[in-house]
UniProtKB/TrEMBL annotation:
Family designation: Belongs to the CD225/Dispanin family.
Pfam family, one: CD225
Name this polypeptide is given: Interferon-induced transmembrane protein 1-like
Single biological process term from Gene Ontology: response to type II interferon
Gene: LOC114499595
Record keyword Transmembrane helix present: yes
InterPro entries noted in UniProt: CD225/Dispanin_fam (IPR007593), IFITM_antiviral_protein (IPR051517)
Predominant location category: membrane
Entry's localization field: Membrane
């Protein structure tokens, strides 16, 4: 007699009178809702045109709060608003920065030249 046969003989065959009960637990995967909080913080610090960066940061925090209480629809709504405000703040901030650089490149030499000409004319040279 093999060891397995001996164990079956001693312990007895498995009881088949009751059905085997099992429990299935379904775990819902968390929906990834980006809250854009880092982007909003960047815009708040560097491109806060008309306070759009700060408002976007506020909506990002609201989105994160909604995500913590498992309100996915509310979190998506606030995140979408934060994304739109971040895009607007970034575009306006970049346009303002580029406009300021262009203004400096073209206006400063012209003013310097005009001031130099007026001073040169006063001396009578």
């Amino acid at each position: 007699m093999t060891k397995e046969e001996h164990e079956v003989a001693v312990l007895g065959a498995p009881q088949g009178s009751r059905p085997v009960m099992s429990t299935v637990v379904n775990i819902q995967p968390e929906t990834a809702v980006p809250d854009h909080i880092v982007w909003s913080l960047f815009n708040t610090l560097f491109f806060n045109v008309c306070c759009l960066g700060f408002v976007a940061f506020t909506y990002s925090v609201k989105s994160r709060d909604r995500k913590m209480v498992k309100d996915v629809i509310g979190a998506q709504s606030y995140a979408s608003t934060a994304k739109c405000l971040n895009i607007a703040a970034l575009v306006l901030g970049l346009l303002g920065t580029i406009g300021f650089i262009v203004l400096l490149v073209f206006l400063v030499p012209a003013v310097y030249h005009a001031v130099g000409q007026s001073m040169w004319g006063r001396r009578g040279y």
